[in-house]
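Journal club side-thread
Mid-discussion, someone asked how the predicted structure for our own chain would compare to the paper's figures. Pasting it here so we can look after the session.
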Amino acid sequence: MEPMTPSTPAHEPKIVTHYDPPPVPWRSFDWCAYDDRTHDMDTPCGYGATEAEAIEDLMEQLDD
């Protein structure tokens, strides 16, 4: 695990994105974003056609 730095406080998510387009014609699940500090089977993942959309979707879920 990497050490905390002033730019990444413990209460802020460490967002990781991944591009893995499924073999379907729609693009809304091409990108996935998740919080690397809390990622497991029960934590939210954001999805989107772009990296920015996936991050926005994740942040909306974390705010709920």
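Post-session note: The chain has one domain: 15-63.
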